[in-house]
């Protein structure tokens, strides 16, 4: 990936492998905003970045360039990944449509809470609930506006169940409160060291986390790119383009992970993006 880090910005020159619309709108993140000039503002925890299209390059303005270089996975060779995935004829059009997607390295506790909200939900409603949750976050002043940070897990744990009930999250409210209380007393940095199979089991043990949500959290919050989350859209992809007999969602996930290996998460994003947009 051709990019350069400065004191208050990152310049990205590999436009074919980086597109803010593709990255933000492929279902992997819920805190992004589009300003009056069409620029994407991305929030992660208490960090914010504004992405400006300069024609020959994208400029990411932020007070923490190193954080967002990691967040946008800028050191991973997506050109190589796309070349490998292009061997599958079914991925030619998805890659063409979403070639600028990059898998984010999100704030782990934020990703956990957001994807609990995402269960059996649509993206616009998820975003609305997440922003309501962020009303108790710290106000962060940036050169491109004032924004609310995603609340710390200790702040979320301090909020009563009644507050969660008023977020509009429905039955997920009790899951959010329970998980916030649990995570507030958990060393998440130690959890990150677990091998993927044990980490999956740990996630499944959290209230409101099933197989699909666990796979999303592993992919976007723990950087485990070998996971291929399966939801309704991906089921449609399987039956419309890859059909190899009737399968359960678990079997569909195993089928795709065996097919795409280390690039499973990226393949999922290309396919999910194409199916949802079309």
Q: Total strand count, please? A: 8
Number of domains: 3
Distance between the termini: 29 Å
Give me the CATH fold name of the largest domain.
Endonuclease III, domain 1
Q: Taking strands numbered 1, 2, ... along the chain, how are they ordered across the largest sheet?
A: 1-2-6-5-4-3
Structural class: alpha+beta
How would a textbook summarize the main sheet? Answer: 6 strands, antiparallel
Which superfamily, in CATH terms, is the homologous superfamily of the largest domain?
Hypothetical protein, domain 2
H/E element order? EEHEEEEHHHHHEEHHHHHHHHH
Radius of gyration, whole Å = 18 Å
Number of helices: 15
Task: State the CATH class of the largest domain.
Answer: Mainly Alpha
Shape summary: globular
Detail the poorly predicted runs: none
The share of residues in extended strands comes to: 5-15%
CATH architecture of the largest domain: Orthogonal Bundle
Write out key terms for the chains shown:
278 residues; alpha+beta; Endonuclease III, domain 1; 15 helices; Endonuclease Iii, domain 2; six-stranded antiparallel β-sheet; TATA-Binding Protein
Concise description?
The protein has 278 residues and is of the alpha+beta class. The protein contains 15 helices and eight strands. It has helices spanning 20-24, 65-71, 78-85, 92-98, 108-118, 123-133, 153-158, 161-165, 172-183, 188-191, 196-204, 211-221, 232-242, 249-260, 264-277, and strands at residues 3-5, 9-12, 32-34, 40-44, 47-53, 58-62, 139-142, 145-148.
């Amino acid at each position: 990936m051709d990019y350069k880090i400065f004191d208050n910005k990152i310049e990205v020159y590999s436009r074919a492998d980086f597109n803010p619309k593709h990255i933000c709108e492929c279902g992997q993140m819920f805190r992004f905003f589009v300003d009056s000039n069409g620029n994407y503002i991305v929030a992660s925890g208490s960090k914010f970045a504004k992405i400006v299209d300069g024609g020959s390059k994208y400029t990411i303005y932020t007070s923490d360039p190193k954080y967002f270089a990691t967040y946008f996975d800028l050191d991973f060779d997506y050109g190589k990944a796309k070349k490998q995935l292009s061997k599958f004829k079914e991925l030619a059009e998805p890659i063409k449509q979403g070639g600028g997607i990059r898998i984010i390295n999100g704030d782990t506790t934020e990703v956990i809470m957001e994807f609990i909200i995402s269960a059996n939900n649509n993206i616009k409603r998820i975003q609305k609930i997440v922003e309501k949750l962020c009303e108790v976050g710290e106000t962060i002043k940036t050169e491109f506006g004032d924004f609310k940070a995603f609340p710390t897990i200790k702040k979320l744990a301090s909020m009563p169940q009644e507050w969660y009930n008023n977020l509009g999250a429905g039955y997920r409210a009790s899951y959010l409160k329970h998980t916030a209380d649990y995570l507030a007393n958990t060393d998440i940095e130690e959890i990150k060291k677990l091998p993927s199979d044990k980490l999956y089991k740990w996630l499944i043990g959290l209230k409101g986390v099933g197989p699909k949500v666990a796979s999303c959290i592993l992919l976007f919050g723990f950087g485990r790119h070998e996971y291929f989350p399966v939801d309704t859209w991906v089921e449609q992809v399987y039956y419309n383009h890859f059909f190899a007999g009737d399968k359960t969602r678990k079997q569909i996930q195993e089928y795709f992970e065996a097919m795409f290996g280390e690039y499973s998460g990226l393949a999922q994003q290309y396919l999910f993006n194409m199916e949802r947009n079309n």
